[in-house]
Amino acid sequence: MTILNRLQNRLIGLTSKKGSVNLARAGKWSLYFVLIGIIAGVGSIIFHYLCEYGMHYFLDFLAGYRPDSPAGEHRIIPPTNTPFNKWILLFLPAVGGLVSGWFVYTFAPEAEGHGTDAAIDAYHRKGGYIRGIVPIIKTIASSITLTTGGSGGREGPIAQIGAGFGSFLATRLKLSDRSRRIMMAAGIGAGVGSIFRAPLAGALFASEVLYRDPEFESEVIIPAGISSVVAYCVFCLEFGWGALFEAPYFNFQNPLELGPYLALAVVLVITGIIYIKFFYGVTGFFKSLRIPNHFKPAIGGLLTGGVGFFLPYTLAFGYGSAQKALNNELTISVLLLLAFGKILTTSFTIGSGGSGGVFGPSIVIGGAMGGVIGQIFHLFMPEIVTSPGAFVVVGMAGFFAAVSNTPISTIIFVSEMTNSYHLLLPSLLVCSVCYLLCRKWSIYEKQVNNKVDSPAHAGEFMVDILQSIKVNDLKHLIKKVPHVHQEMPFVDFKKFFSETKQHYFPVMNNEDRFVGIFSSTDIRGVLFSQHIEHLVVMKDLATTDMIVTTKNEDLNTVLQKLTTKNIDSLPVVEEEDHGILVGMLDRRSVIAMYNRQIQHLKSKSQE
Protein backbone atom coordinates (compact mmCIF):
# COMPACT_ATOMS: atom_id res chain seq x y z
CA MET A 1 0.00 0.00 0.00
CA THR A 2 1.42 3.42 -0.97
CA ILE A 3 1.94 6.30 1.44
CA LEU A 4 -0.88 8.22 -0.25
CA ASN A 5 -3.32 5.35 0.15
CA ARG A 6 -2.37 4.90 3.81
CA LEU A 7 -2.82 8.61 4.37
CA GLN A 8 -6.19 8.58 2.63
CA ASN A 9 -7.42 5.64 4.73
CA ARG A 10 -6.21 7.29 7.90
CA LEU A 11 -8.09 10.48 7.08
CA ILE A 12 -11.28 8.58 6.35
CA GLY A 13 -10.89 6.56 9.54
CA LEU A 14 -10.22 9.53 11.80
CA THR A 15 -13.73 9.35 13.19
CA SER A 16 -16.94 7.42 12.81
CA LYS A 17 -19.06 10.22 14.20
CA LYS A 18 -21.48 11.65 11.68
CA GLY A 19 -20.80 15.23 12.68
CA SER A 20 -17.10 14.88 11.97
CA VAL A 21 -17.31 13.24 8.54
CA ASN A 22 -17.41 16.56 6.66
CA LEU A 23 -14.40 17.80 8.61
CA ALA A 24 -12.40 14.70 7.70
CA ARG A 25 -13.47 15.01 4.06
CA ALA A 26 -12.52 18.69 3.94
CA GLY A 27 -9.17 17.90 5.53
CA LYS A 28 -8.52 15.13 3.02
CA TRP A 29 -9.20 17.34 0.01
CA SER A 30 -7.26 20.26 1.48
CA LEU A 31 -4.29 17.92 1.90
CA TYR A 32 -4.54 16.97 -1.77
CA PHE A 33 -4.52 20.61 -2.87
CA VAL A 34 -1.66 21.48 -0.53
CA LEU A 35 0.30 18.56 -1.98
CA ILE A 36 -0.42 19.77 -5.52
CA GLY A 37 0.79 23.23 -4.50
CA ILE A 38 4.03 21.84 -3.04
CA ILE A 39 4.80 19.83 -6.18
CA ALA A 40 3.92 22.75 -8.46
CA GLY A 41 6.12 25.08 -6.38
CA VAL A 42 9.04 22.63 -6.48
CA GLY A 43 8.42 22.22 -10.23
CA SER A 44 8.60 26.00 -10.67
CA ILE A 45 11.90 26.08 -8.79
CA ILE A 46 13.38 23.28 -10.92
CA PHE A 47 12.16 24.87 -14.14
CA HIS A 48 13.53 28.27 -13.11
CA TYR A 49 16.94 26.76 -12.33
CA LEU A 50 16.94 24.93 -15.67
CA CYS A 51 16.20 28.19 -17.47
CA GLU A 52 18.88 30.10 -15.56
CA TYR A 53 21.59 27.51 -16.20
CA GLY A 54 20.45 27.03 -19.80
CA MET A 55 20.64 30.75 -20.56
CA HIS A 56 24.05 30.95 -18.92
CA TYR A 57 25.61 28.10 -20.90
CA PHE A 58 23.79 28.60 -24.21
CA LEU A 59 22.99 32.29 -24.73
CA ASP A 60 25.78 33.76 -22.56
CA PHE A 61 28.67 31.29 -22.85
CA LEU A 62 28.16 30.40 -26.54
CA ALA A 63 26.72 33.57 -28.06
CA GLY A 64 27.67 36.24 -25.54
CA TYR A 65 24.05 37.35 -25.35
CA ARG A 66 22.84 38.38 -21.89
CA PRO A 67 19.18 39.41 -22.00
CA ASP A 68 18.07 41.79 -19.28
CA SER A 69 16.05 40.45 -16.35
CA PRO A 70 13.02 42.01 -14.67
CA ALA A 71 13.76 43.82 -11.41
CA GLY A 72 12.20 41.03 -9.33
CA GLU A 73 14.66 38.42 -10.61
CA HIS A 74 18.42 38.19 -10.28
CA ARG A 75 20.95 36.09 -12.12
CA ILE A 76 22.01 33.00 -10.19
CA ILE A 77 25.31 32.63 -12.06
CA PRO A 78 27.72 35.53 -12.80
CA PRO A 79 27.93 36.43 -16.50
CA THR A 80 30.83 35.27 -18.68
CA ASN A 81 33.19 37.45 -20.69
CA THR A 82 32.17 35.91 -24.02
CA PRO A 83 31.83 38.64 -26.69
CA PHE A 84 28.48 38.97 -28.42
CA ASN A 85 28.31 36.88 -31.60
CA LYS A 86 25.13 37.38 -33.60
CA TRP A 87 26.02 34.58 -36.04
CA ILE A 88 25.87 32.00 -33.28
CA LEU A 89 22.63 33.63 -32.17
CA LEU A 90 21.28 33.09 -35.68
CA PHE A 91 21.67 29.30 -35.56
CA LEU A 92 21.37 28.59 -31.83
CA PRO A 93 17.51 28.59 -31.77
CA ALA A 94 17.52 26.09 -34.64
CA VAL A 95 19.76 23.71 -32.68
CA GLY A 96 17.53 24.12 -29.64
CA GLY A 97 14.46 23.47 -31.78
CA LEU A 98 16.01 20.31 -33.20
CA VAL A 99 16.83 18.88 -29.76
CA SER A 100 13.51 19.86 -28.15
CA GLY A 101 11.61 18.58 -31.21
CA TRP A 102 13.31 15.20 -30.88
CA PHE A 103 12.37 15.01 -27.20
CA VAL A 104 8.73 16.02 -27.77
CA TYR A 105 7.88 13.96 -30.83
CA THR A 106 9.76 10.91 -29.61
CA PHE A 107 8.30 10.67 -26.12
CA ALA A 108 5.19 12.90 -25.82
CA PRO A 109 3.84 14.55 -29.00
CA GLU A 110 1.04 16.20 -26.99
CA ALA A 111 3.69 18.34 -25.27
CA GLU A 112 4.24 20.45 -28.41
CA GLY A 113 3.21 24.09 -28.55
CA HIS A 114 1.91 26.05 -25.59
CA GLY A 115 1.00 23.77 -22.71
CA THR A 116 -1.97 25.72 -21.38
CA ASP A 117 -4.02 24.82 -24.46
CA ALA A 118 -3.26 21.12 -23.92
CA ALA A 119 -4.39 21.41 -20.29
CA ILE A 120 -7.63 23.13 -21.37
CA ASP A 121 -8.27 20.31 -23.83
CA ALA A 122 -7.62 17.72 -21.14
CA TYR A 123 -10.13 19.44 -18.85
CA HIS A 124 -12.96 19.53 -21.37
CA ARG A 125 -12.45 16.41 -23.43
CA LYS A 126 -10.21 13.93 -21.58
CA GLY A 127 -11.63 13.88 -18.06
CA GLY A 128 -8.62 15.82 -16.82
CA TYR A 129 -6.26 12.99 -17.78
CA ILE A 130 -2.67 13.88 -18.67
CA ARG A 131 -0.02 11.22 -19.21
CA GLY A 132 2.60 11.26 -16.46
CA ILE A 133 5.47 11.65 -18.91
CA VAL A 134 4.06 14.84 -20.46
CA PRO A 135 5.10 17.30 -17.68
CA ILE A 136 8.62 15.83 -17.63
CA ILE A 137 9.08 16.12 -21.40
CA LYS A 138 7.42 19.55 -21.41
CA THR A 139 9.87 20.79 -18.78
CA ILE A 140 12.94 19.50 -20.62
CA ALA A 141 11.78 20.60 -24.08
CA SER A 142 10.66 24.06 -22.93
CA SER A 143 13.86 24.77 -21.03
CA ILE A 144 15.89 23.83 -24.13
CA THR A 145 13.69 25.86 -26.47
CA LEU A 146 13.62 29.00 -24.34
CA THR A 147 17.26 29.03 -23.26
CA THR A 148 18.62 28.67 -26.78
CA GLY A 149 16.79 31.80 -27.89
CA GLY A 150 13.29 30.54 -28.66
CA SER A 151 10.57 33.03 -27.81
CA GLY A 152 7.96 31.87 -25.32
CA GLY A 153 6.71 32.09 -21.77
CA ARG A 154 7.10 30.04 -18.64
CA GLU A 155 3.42 29.54 -17.85
CA GLY A 156 2.78 26.80 -20.44
CA PRO A 157 5.42 24.36 -19.16
CA ILE A 158 4.79 25.05 -15.48
CA ALA A 159 1.02 24.84 -16.00
CA GLN A 160 1.51 21.34 -17.39
CA ILE A 161 3.78 20.38 -14.50
CA GLY A 162 1.11 21.34 -11.95
CA ALA A 163 -1.74 20.01 -14.04
CA GLY A 164 0.11 16.78 -14.74
CA PHE A 165 0.72 16.08 -11.08
CA GLY A 166 -2.89 16.92 -10.17
CA SER A 167 -4.06 14.49 -12.85
CA PHE A 168 -1.57 11.83 -11.72
CA LEU A 169 -2.64 12.13 -8.07
CA ALA A 170 -6.33 11.82 -8.91
CA THR A 171 -5.67 8.83 -11.16
CA ARG A 172 -3.50 7.15 -8.53
CA LEU A 173 -6.23 7.57 -5.92
CA LYS A 174 -8.85 6.28 -8.41
CA LEU A 175 -10.98 9.40 -8.10
CA SER A 176 -13.77 10.39 -10.49
CA ASP A 177 -13.26 12.35 -13.72
CA ARG A 178 -14.77 15.40 -12.04
CA SER A 179 -12.28 15.22 -9.17
CA ARG A 180 -9.42 14.70 -11.62
CA ARG A 181 -10.48 17.77 -13.60
CA ILE A 182 -10.58 19.92 -10.47
CA MET A 183 -7.19 18.71 -9.26
CA MET A 184 -5.71 19.21 -12.70
CA ALA A 185 -7.04 22.80 -12.85
CA ALA A 186 -5.71 23.43 -9.33
CA GLY A 187 -2.31 22.40 -10.68
CA ILE A 188 -2.61 24.96 -13.49
CA GLY A 189 -3.35 27.72 -11.00
CA ALA A 190 -0.52 26.64 -8.72
CA GLY A 191 2.05 26.52 -11.51
CA VAL A 192 1.13 29.84 -13.10
CA GLY A 193 0.61 31.62 -9.77
CA SER A 194 4.03 30.57 -8.47
CA ILE A 195 6.22 31.19 -11.52
CA PHE A 196 4.77 34.70 -12.01
CA ARG A 197 4.46 35.42 -8.27
CA ALA A 198 0.75 36.11 -8.64
CA PRO A 199 -1.16 33.56 -6.51
CA LEU A 200 -4.60 35.22 -6.63
CA ALA A 201 -4.38 35.69 -10.39
CA GLY A 202 -3.21 32.10 -10.82
CA ALA A 203 -6.34 30.76 -9.12
CA LEU A 204 -8.65 33.02 -11.13
CA PHE A 205 -6.82 32.28 -14.37
CA ALA A 206 -7.23 28.52 -13.90
CA SER A 207 -11.00 28.91 -13.62
CA GLU A 208 -11.45 31.61 -16.30
CA VAL A 209 -9.17 30.44 -19.13
CA LEU A 210 -11.34 27.36 -19.75
CA TYR A 211 -14.08 29.40 -21.48
CA ARG A 212 -14.37 32.14 -24.08
CA ASP A 213 -17.44 33.67 -22.50
CA PRO A 214 -16.97 35.66 -19.27
CA GLU A 215 -17.56 32.57 -17.16
CA PHE A 216 -15.66 31.06 -14.24
CA GLU A 217 -15.44 27.38 -13.33
CA SER A 218 -16.67 27.98 -9.78
CA GLU A 219 -15.70 24.57 -8.43
CA VAL A 220 -12.07 25.24 -9.41
CA ILE A 221 -11.50 28.61 -7.70
CA ILE A 222 -11.08 27.48 -4.06
CA PRO A 223 -8.94 24.39 -4.82
CA ALA A 224 -6.78 26.42 -7.21
CA GLY A 225 -6.53 29.16 -4.59
CA ILE A 226 -5.19 26.73 -1.96
CA SER A 227 -2.69 25.17 -4.37
CA SER A 228 -1.61 28.52 -5.78
CA VAL A 229 -0.88 30.05 -2.36
CA VAL A 230 1.18 27.02 -1.32
CA ALA A 231 3.11 26.93 -4.62
CA TYR A 232 3.80 30.68 -4.42
CA CYS A 233 5.19 30.32 -0.89
CA VAL A 234 7.40 27.37 -1.86
CA PHE A 235 8.79 29.27 -4.86
CA CYS A 236 9.41 32.50 -2.96
CA LEU A 237 11.15 30.68 -0.10
CA GLU A 238 13.83 29.80 -2.65
CA PHE A 239 13.97 32.96 -4.79
CA GLY A 240 12.73 35.70 -2.48
CA TRP A 241 9.48 37.59 -2.10
CA GLY A 242 8.12 40.48 -4.10
CA ALA A 243 6.68 41.20 -7.54
CA LEU A 244 8.22 40.03 -10.82
CA PHE A 245 8.48 43.60 -12.15
CA GLU A 246 9.34 46.78 -10.31
CA ALA A 247 7.14 49.62 -11.49
CA PRO A 248 7.31 53.29 -10.50
CA TYR A 249 4.39 54.63 -8.50
CA PHE A 250 1.57 55.09 -11.01
CA ASN A 251 -1.73 56.66 -10.13
CA PHE A 252 -4.94 57.38 -12.03
CA GLN A 253 -6.40 60.76 -11.11
CA ASN A 254 -7.56 62.44 -14.32
CA PRO A 255 -10.77 61.22 -16.04
CA LEU A 256 -9.58 62.83 -19.30
CA GLU A 257 -6.89 60.16 -19.43
CA LEU A 258 -9.59 57.59 -20.23
CA GLY A 259 -9.66 58.91 -23.82
CA PRO A 260 -6.04 57.85 -24.53
CA TYR A 261 -6.72 54.57 -22.72
CA LEU A 262 -9.62 53.88 -25.09
CA ALA A 263 -7.31 54.57 -28.02
CA LEU A 264 -4.86 52.11 -26.47
CA ALA A 265 -7.62 49.48 -26.30
CA VAL A 266 -8.32 49.81 -30.03
CA VAL A 267 -4.61 49.50 -30.88
CA LEU A 268 -4.29 46.45 -28.63
CA VAL A 269 -7.26 44.76 -30.31
CA ILE A 270 -5.80 45.31 -33.78
CA THR A 271 -2.39 44.07 -32.63
CA GLY A 272 -4.00 41.09 -30.89
CA ILE A 273 -5.87 40.01 -34.01
CA ILE A 274 -2.66 40.31 -36.05
CA TYR A 275 -0.87 38.19 -33.43
CA ILE A 276 -3.51 35.45 -33.38
CA LYS A 277 -3.90 35.35 -37.17
CA PHE A 278 -0.17 35.24 -37.77
CA PHE A 279 0.42 32.70 -34.98
CA TYR A 280 -2.12 30.23 -36.34
CA GLY A 281 -1.13 30.99 -39.93
CA VAL A 282 2.40 29.88 -39.05
CA THR A 283 1.01 26.88 -37.14
CA GLY A 284 -1.07 25.83 -40.15
CA PHE A 285 1.90 26.23 -42.48
CA PHE A 286 4.13 23.98 -40.39
CA LYS A 287 1.41 21.37 -40.02
CA SER A 288 1.08 21.25 -43.79
CA LEU A 289 4.80 20.64 -44.31
CA ARG A 290 5.40 17.04 -45.35
CA ILE A 291 8.56 16.49 -43.37
CA PRO A 292 9.11 14.62 -40.08
CA ASN A 293 7.72 16.58 -37.14
CA HIS A 294 11.06 16.37 -35.35
CA PHE A 295 12.61 18.85 -37.82
CA LYS A 296 9.84 21.45 -37.82
CA PRO A 297 10.89 23.19 -34.58
CA ALA A 298 14.41 23.45 -36.02
CA ILE A 299 13.08 25.33 -39.06
CA GLY A 300 11.01 27.53 -36.76
CA GLY A 301 14.11 28.11 -34.67
CA LEU A 302 16.10 29.17 -37.72
CA LEU A 303 13.41 31.71 -38.63
CA THR A 304 13.41 32.89 -35.02
CA GLY A 305 17.18 33.27 -35.15
CA GLY A 306 16.82 35.27 -38.37
CA VAL A 307 14.68 37.83 -36.54
CA GLY A 308 17.00 37.72 -33.52
CA PHE A 309 20.00 38.37 -35.77
CA PHE A 310 18.68 41.91 -36.22
CA LEU A 311 16.56 42.25 -33.07
CA PRO A 312 18.18 40.14 -30.32
CA TYR A 313 15.87 41.57 -27.64
CA THR A 314 12.95 39.69 -29.24
CA LEU A 315 14.47 36.32 -28.27
CA ALA A 316 13.95 34.24 -25.10
CA PHE A 317 11.57 35.64 -22.49
CA GLY A 318 11.82 39.39 -23.07
CA TYR A 319 10.84 40.32 -19.51
CA GLY A 320 13.88 42.59 -19.19
CA SER A 321 12.64 44.65 -22.13
CA ALA A 322 9.23 44.92 -20.50
CA GLN A 323 10.97 46.19 -17.34
CA LYS A 324 12.77 48.86 -19.40
CA ALA A 325 9.45 49.88 -20.96
CA LEU A 326 7.99 50.31 -17.47
CA ASN A 327 10.92 52.58 -16.62
CA ASN A 328 10.37 54.56 -19.84
CA GLU A 329 13.87 53.65 -21.09
CA LEU A 330 12.90 52.58 -24.62
CA THR A 331 12.07 54.80 -27.60
CA ILE A 332 8.88 54.49 -29.66
CA SER A 333 10.72 52.87 -32.56
CA VAL A 334 12.36 50.25 -30.34
CA LEU A 335 9.03 49.49 -28.66
CA LEU A 336 7.36 48.96 -32.04
CA LEU A 337 10.17 46.67 -33.19
CA LEU A 338 9.97 44.80 -29.89
CA ALA A 339 6.20 44.25 -30.20
CA PHE A 340 6.10 43.08 -33.81
CA GLY A 341 9.42 41.26 -33.59
CA LYS A 342 8.07 39.36 -30.59
CA ILE A 343 4.98 38.40 -32.60
CA LEU A 344 7.28 36.95 -35.28
CA THR A 345 9.65 35.07 -32.97
CA THR A 346 6.86 33.66 -30.77
CA SER A 347 4.89 32.47 -33.79
CA PHE A 348 7.94 30.85 -35.39
CA THR A 349 9.06 29.21 -32.14
CA ILE A 350 5.78 27.80 -30.85
CA GLY A 351 3.83 27.60 -34.12
CA SER A 352 6.45 25.25 -35.54
CA GLY A 353 5.97 22.84 -32.64
CA GLY A 354 8.48 24.31 -30.21
CA SER A 355 7.62 24.21 -26.53
CA GLY A 356 6.75 27.31 -24.50
CA GLY A 357 3.93 29.47 -23.23
CA VAL A 358 2.13 32.38 -24.86
CA PHE A 359 1.30 34.45 -21.76
CA GLY A 360 4.84 35.76 -21.28
CA PRO A 361 5.26 37.00 -24.88
CA SER A 362 1.78 38.54 -24.72
CA ILE A 363 2.81 40.56 -21.67
CA VAL A 364 5.88 41.86 -23.53
CA ILE A 365 3.93 42.67 -26.72
CA GLY A 366 1.13 44.40 -24.82
CA GLY A 367 3.56 46.34 -22.65
CA ALA A 368 5.50 47.51 -25.70
CA MET A 369 2.36 48.71 -27.52
CA GLY A 370 1.20 50.37 -24.30
CA GLY A 371 4.53 52.18 -24.14
CA VAL A 372 4.13 53.36 -27.75
CA ILE A 373 0.67 54.82 -27.15
CA GLY A 374 1.67 56.28 -23.78
CA GLN A 375 4.69 58.07 -25.21
CA ILE A 376 2.76 59.40 -28.23
CA PHE A 377 0.01 60.89 -26.05
CA HIS A 378 2.61 62.19 -23.62
CA LEU A 379 4.22 64.14 -26.48
CA PHE A 380 0.95 65.83 -27.48
CA MET A 381 -0.83 66.18 -24.13
CA PRO A 382 1.74 65.91 -21.33
CA GLU A 383 -0.58 67.56 -18.83
CA ILE A 384 -3.08 64.68 -19.23
CA VAL A 385 -0.79 61.71 -19.85
CA THR A 386 1.90 62.37 -17.28
CA SER A 387 3.31 58.82 -16.97
CA PRO A 388 3.77 56.81 -20.20
CA GLY A 389 4.86 53.86 -18.06
CA ALA A 390 1.31 53.53 -16.74
CA PHE A 391 0.22 52.68 -20.29
CA VAL A 392 2.77 49.86 -20.29
CA VAL A 393 1.04 48.27 -17.28
CA VAL A 394 -2.44 48.70 -18.74
CA GLY A 395 -1.17 47.53 -22.15
CA MET A 396 0.10 44.29 -20.62
CA ALA A 397 -3.32 43.58 -19.15
CA GLY A 398 -5.38 44.70 -22.14
CA PHE A 399 -3.43 42.78 -24.76
CA PHE A 400 -3.59 39.44 -22.98
CA ALA A 401 -7.27 40.00 -22.17
CA ALA A 402 -7.83 40.51 -25.91
CA VAL A 403 -5.99 37.39 -27.07
CA SER A 404 -7.02 35.02 -24.26
CA ASN A 405 -10.60 36.05 -23.34
CA THR A 406 -9.63 36.28 -19.65
CA PRO A 407 -10.30 39.92 -18.69
CA ILE A 408 -10.73 39.52 -14.93
CA SER A 409 -7.79 37.29 -14.06
CA THR A 410 -5.53 39.30 -16.39
CA ILE A 411 -6.23 42.54 -14.51
CA ILE A 412 -5.22 40.84 -11.25
CA PHE A 413 -2.26 39.15 -12.93
CA VAL A 414 -0.67 42.37 -14.13
CA SER A 415 -1.48 44.19 -10.89
CA GLU A 416 0.29 41.48 -8.86
CA MET A 417 3.21 41.18 -11.29
CA THR A 418 3.90 44.94 -11.29
CA ASN A 419 2.55 45.83 -7.83
CA SER A 420 0.50 48.58 -9.54
CA TYR A 421 -2.92 48.34 -7.92
CA HIS A 422 -3.74 52.02 -8.47
CA LEU A 423 -4.33 51.38 -12.18
CA LEU A 424 -7.24 48.98 -11.66
CA LEU A 425 -9.79 51.44 -13.07
CA PRO A 426 -8.13 52.09 -16.46
CA SER A 427 -7.13 48.41 -16.61
CA LEU A 428 -10.75 47.39 -16.13
CA LEU A 429 -11.88 49.75 -18.89
CA VAL A 430 -9.21 48.65 -21.37
CA CYS A 431 -9.56 44.93 -20.61
CA SER A 432 -13.36 45.12 -20.95
CA VAL A 433 -13.19 46.91 -24.30
CA CYS A 434 -10.46 44.58 -25.57
CA TYR A 435 -12.45 41.53 -24.54
CA LEU A 436 -15.67 42.75 -26.17
CA LEU A 437 -13.98 43.67 -29.46
CA CYS A 438 -11.78 40.58 -29.68
CA ARG A 439 -13.95 37.80 -28.25
CA LYS A 440 -14.27 36.08 -31.66
CA TRP A 441 -10.55 35.29 -31.57
CA SER A 442 -8.42 33.50 -29.00
CA ILE A 443 -4.84 32.31 -28.75
CA TYR A 444 -6.25 29.29 -26.87
CA GLU A 445 -7.93 27.17 -29.54
CA LYS A 446 -9.22 24.58 -27.08
CA GLN A 447 -11.39 27.01 -25.15
CA VAL A 448 -15.12 26.35 -25.41
CA ASN A 449 -17.72 29.11 -25.32
CA ASN A 450 -19.34 28.14 -22.04
CA LYS A 451 -20.42 25.17 -19.93
CA VAL A 452 -23.16 24.34 -22.42
CA ASP A 453 -20.49 23.52 -25.00
CA SER A 454 -18.15 21.70 -22.63
CA PRO A 455 -18.17 17.88 -22.88
CA ALA A 456 -17.03 17.90 -19.25
CA HIS A 457 -20.41 19.27 -18.19
CA ALA A 458 -22.61 17.50 -20.72
CA GLY A 459 -24.22 15.11 -18.23
CA GLU A 460 -24.53 17.68 -15.43
CA PHE A 461 -25.96 20.28 -17.76
CA MET A 462 -28.48 17.84 -19.21
CA VAL A 463 -29.73 17.08 -15.70
CA ASP A 464 -29.98 20.78 -14.86
CA ILE A 465 -31.99 21.49 -18.02
CA LEU A 466 -34.31 18.51 -17.59
CA GLN A 467 -34.92 19.34 -13.94
CA SER A 468 -36.05 22.83 -14.92
CA ILE A 469 -38.80 21.49 -17.24
CA LYS A 470 -42.04 19.99 -15.97
CA VAL A 471 -44.23 17.46 -17.74
CA ASN A 472 -46.92 20.14 -17.83
CA ASP A 473 -44.64 22.17 -20.14
CA LEU A 474 -45.06 19.33 -22.66
CA LYS A 475 -48.84 19.05 -22.33
CA HIS A 476 -49.22 19.72 -26.05
CA LEU A 477 -47.08 16.59 -26.65
CA ILE A 478 -49.01 14.29 -24.31
CA LYS A 479 -50.92 11.98 -26.66
CA LYS A 480 -54.51 10.88 -26.15
CA VAL A 481 -54.31 7.23 -27.14
CA PRO A 482 -57.13 4.66 -27.59
CA HIS A 483 -57.40 2.33 -24.62
CA VAL A 484 -58.79 -1.22 -24.24
CA HIS A 485 -61.23 -2.64 -21.73
CA GLN A 486 -59.83 -5.15 -19.29
CA GLU A 487 -62.44 -7.78 -20.27
CA MET A 488 -61.86 -7.44 -24.01
CA PRO A 489 -61.14 -10.90 -25.51
CA PHE A 490 -57.81 -11.20 -27.21
CA VAL A 491 -59.54 -12.28 -30.44
CA ASP A 492 -61.26 -8.88 -30.60
CA PHE A 493 -58.06 -7.08 -29.74
CA LYS A 494 -56.27 -8.70 -32.71
CA LYS A 495 -58.53 -6.82 -35.12
CA PHE A 496 -57.99 -3.56 -33.23
CA PHE A 497 -54.23 -4.17 -33.19
CA SER A 498 -54.08 -4.76 -36.95
CA GLU A 499 -55.55 -1.28 -37.59
CA THR A 500 -53.26 0.79 -35.34
CA LYS A 501 -49.58 1.76 -35.11
CA GLN A 502 -49.85 2.14 -31.36
CA HIS A 503 -47.18 0.37 -29.24
CA TYR A 504 -48.48 0.90 -25.68
CA PHE A 505 -52.08 0.15 -24.68
CA PRO A 506 -53.65 1.49 -21.47
CA VAL A 507 -56.21 -0.89 -19.88
CA MET A 508 -59.39 0.46 -18.26
CA ASN A 509 -61.92 -1.19 -15.91
CA ASN A 510 -65.72 -0.89 -15.83
CA GLU A 511 -65.49 2.53 -14.12
CA ASP A 512 -63.17 3.75 -16.90
CA ARG A 513 -60.25 3.90 -14.50
CA PHE A 514 -56.69 3.19 -15.49
CA VAL A 515 -55.72 -0.20 -14.06
CA GLY A 516 -52.93 -1.55 -16.25
CA ILE A 517 -50.86 -1.29 -19.42
CA PHE A 518 -49.16 -3.58 -21.91
CA SER A 519 -47.00 -3.17 -24.98
CA SER A 520 -46.96 -4.79 -28.41
CA THR A 521 -44.04 -6.89 -27.17
CA ASP A 522 -46.14 -8.32 -24.34
CA ILE A 523 -48.70 -9.84 -26.71
CA ARG A 524 -46.22 -11.63 -28.93
CA GLY A 525 -46.54 -14.94 -27.06
CA VAL A 526 -50.32 -15.01 -27.48
CA LEU A 527 -50.43 -13.57 -30.97
CA PHE A 528 -48.99 -16.73 -32.48
CA SER A 529 -50.78 -19.21 -30.17
CA GLN A 530 -54.20 -19.58 -31.73
CA HIS A 531 -55.30 -22.32 -29.34
CA ILE A 532 -55.32 -19.94 -26.34
CA GLU A 533 -56.37 -16.62 -27.91
CA HIS A 534 -60.06 -17.36 -27.19
CA LEU A 535 -59.32 -17.90 -23.50
CA VAL A 536 -57.29 -14.73 -22.85
CA VAL A 537 -58.73 -11.33 -21.97
CA MET A 538 -56.63 -8.16 -21.91
CA LYS A 539 -56.32 -7.87 -18.13
CA ASP A 540 -54.41 -11.16 -18.23
CA LEU A 541 -51.68 -9.49 -20.29
CA ALA A 542 -51.61 -6.10 -18.59
CA THR A 543 -49.02 -5.01 -16.04
CA THR A 544 -50.65 -3.60 -12.93
CA ASP A 545 -47.39 -2.49 -11.30
CA MET A 546 -47.25 0.56 -13.54
CA ILE A 547 -44.55 3.20 -13.87
CA VAL A 548 -46.34 6.52 -14.32
CA THR A 549 -45.66 10.24 -14.22
CA THR A 550 -47.68 13.34 -13.39
CA LYS A 551 -47.78 16.88 -14.76
CA ASN A 552 -45.73 18.19 -11.85
CA GLU A 553 -42.76 15.85 -12.29
CA ASP A 554 -39.59 17.16 -13.96
CA LEU A 555 -38.24 15.64 -17.15
CA ASN A 556 -35.10 14.33 -15.48
CA THR A 557 -37.28 12.08 -13.31
CA VAL A 558 -39.30 11.08 -16.36
CA LEU A 559 -36.18 10.17 -18.32
CA GLN A 560 -34.85 8.11 -15.42
CA LYS A 561 -38.11 6.14 -15.35
CA LEU A 562 -38.00 5.59 -19.08
CA THR A 563 -34.39 4.38 -19.07
CA THR A 564 -34.67 2.25 -15.90
CA LYS A 565 -37.20 -0.09 -17.53
CA ASN A 566 -36.07 0.62 -21.10
CA ILE A 567 -39.50 1.77 -22.22
CA ASP A 568 -40.35 4.34 -24.88
CA SER A 569 -43.57 5.82 -23.49
CA LEU A 570 -44.89 6.67 -20.04
CA PRO A 571 -48.53 7.08 -18.86
CA VAL A 572 -49.33 10.55 -17.52
CA VAL A 573 -51.88 10.45 -14.71
CA GLU A 574 -53.49 13.00 -12.43
CA GLU A 575 -51.44 13.98 -9.37
CA GLU A 576 -54.25 13.31 -6.89
CA ASP A 577 -55.69 10.21 -8.57
CA HIS A 578 -53.47 7.82 -10.52
CA GLY A 579 -56.56 6.06 -11.83
CA ILE A 580 -57.29 8.98 -14.15
CA LEU A 581 -55.23 8.71 -17.33
CA VAL A 582 -54.29 11.98 -19.05
CA GLY A 583 -52.33 10.49 -21.94
CA MET A 584 -48.96 9.03 -22.97
CA LEU A 585 -45.61 10.87 -23.09
CA ASP A 586 -42.94 9.55 -25.49
CA ARG A 587 -39.20 9.44 -24.87
CA ARG A 588 -38.70 11.25 -28.20
CA SER A 589 -40.75 14.19 -26.97
CA VAL A 590 -38.60 14.52 -23.84
CA ILE A 591 -35.35 14.48 -25.82
CA ALA A 592 -36.75 16.89 -28.43
CA MET A 593 -37.68 19.36 -25.69
CA TYR A 594 -34.18 19.08 -24.22
CA ASN A 595 -32.59 19.76 -27.63
CA ARG A 596 -34.83 22.79 -28.15
CA GLN A 597 -33.78 24.19 -24.77
CA ILE A 598 -30.10 23.66 -25.61
CA GLN A 599 -30.47 25.48 -28.93
CA HIS A 600 -32.34 28.28 -27.19
CA LEU A 601 -29.57 28.71 -24.62
CA LYS A 602 -26.87 28.61 -27.30
CA SER A 603 -28.62 31.24 -29.39
CA LYS A 604 -28.99 33.46 -26.33
CA SER A 605 -25.30 33.09 -25.47
CA GLN A 606 -24.35 34.17 -29.01
CA GLU A 607 -26.48 37.30 -29.02
Give the helix/strand layout.
Elements lengths: L2 H10 L5 H43 L25 H22 L7 H11 L7 H15 L7 H18 L4 H19 L3 H10 L9 H22 L18 H31 L7 H15 L8 H8 L5 H20 L7 H22 L7 H17 L2 H12 L5 H15 L19 H10 L16 E2 L4 H9 L5 E5 L5 E6 L4 H4 L27 H10 L4 E5 L7 E6 H19 L2
Helix pairs in contact: 2-5, 2-6, 2-7, 2-9, 3-5, 3-11, 4-6, 4-7, 5-6, 6-7, 7-8, 7-9, 8-9, 8-16, 10-13, 10-14, 10-15, 10-17, 11-13, 12-14, 13-14, 14-15, 15-16, 15-17, 16-17
What are the defining features of this structure?
3 domains; CBS-domain; Clc chloride channel; mainly alpha; elongated
Protein described:
- The chain has 607 residues and is mostly helical.
- The chain folds into three domains: 3-239, Orthogonal Bundle (Clc chloride channel); 255-456, Clc chloride channel; 460-602, CBS-domain (Roll).
- The chain is 60% helix and 4% strand.
- The chain is built from 22 helices and five strands.
- The strands form two sheets. The protein has a three-stranded mixed β-sheet, with no helix packed on it. The protein has a two-stranded antiparallel ribbon with strand order 4-5.
- A hairpin with a 5-residue loop joins β2 and β3.
- The longest helix is centred in the N-terminal third of the chain and has 43 residues, at 18-60.
- The two termini are 54 Å apart.
- CATH class placement of the largest domain: Mainly Alpha
Order of adjacent strands in the largest pleated sheet: 1-2-3
Q: Give me the CATH architecture of the largest domain, please.
A: Orthogonal Bundle
How many domains, as an integer? 3
**Number of helix segments?**
22
End-to-end distance: 54 Å
Please identify which CATH superfamily of the largest domain we are dealing with: Clc chloride channel
**CATH topology descriptor of the largest domain:** Clc chloride channel
Low-confidence stretches: 10-19
- The share of residues in extended strands comes to under 5%
Overall, the morphology is: elongated
By DSSP, the count of extended strands is 5
